[in-house]
# Entry
Amino acid sequence: MVTRRLTLAPPPLSGLSDQLRVRMAPGSFTDDGLTMRYALSDNAAIDAAVDDSRSIWAVNIHGFFAGGGMYWRESARLAGGLGWKVVNPSLPSFGGSQPLEWSDLSMSAFAARLAALLDHLEVERAVVLGHSMGGAVAMQFAHDHPDRCLGVIYRDGAGPSSWKTRHGLLTKITEPISPDVGSMVEIVAGAVADIPDLAWGRLGSFVRGVLPDARRNIHSLADTFPVAAMLFYENLDPVILAVSSTDIPILPMWGRSDRLVPRGTALDFSDIVGEPVVWIAGGHSWMLPRPVTQLRTLQRHPQGQDFVRRVAARDADLAAASAA
# Structure
């Protein structure tokens, strides 16, 4: 594993209050015949407090069977605390966005939809935060569109091939017949084990944030299951390795109690990209019941502070290159 000296930096927008109030405004756009839903942070309070004509953009990419709405509370805090402009997409088949054709399903197709969203918003480049399946999409976006990616925050990602390798009793029993069946059941069990952690935090706000997208996804199960199959059988190891060889900043973050994407996968990802893991208290979906955690990590943790500094430097370098 590569060890890099970390440079402490003051929290971004240190003159602002710890968290300005920001709301997420829903929207949608249609490209190539497909409608995609999203929400965008309203940064009016930030624009009034800071004379900064160029804000960092960020795309907060949800996990499987979720939607952009489930991460609104987190994105509002990121916008209010960092001054970033944050957009939450609902990927095809999730949160009310139209599905891709089965024959078109791939991580590259999802990454292309994110690029189309940035085009719609007239955004040149952005940080991508990806949780679970969204982590895989974030890495694919960094691979396919490197000049549009300012950095990747990779959170309990289902990208490395090791995430679906299970060693439980059910996998051992079914391995002679079909090893995939046992692994899939153990993955589902890991998701169920994450439910108690989701009960922490402000339950009312959490439920209001989760239920709308959950209902939409239940109504479109026929469209979401093919995505699960694609995720399970796609190997992103070469993509992750290729991105690690670039100068795109990467921040791996993982829940200490994650049973869905286990600790071994976090360490494998860390070895590939040469960045240590920031371990977070909680399970696989730690950011949903505790939406301020990501902001606190970027403001106060040495790795988070260093990531923000490197993102700002990359944004300035890319802006200078495009202006030349």
Q: What stands out?
A: Residues 298 and 305 are 5 Å apart (CA to CA). The two ends are 36 Å apart (CA to CA). The first helix runs from residue 44 to 49.
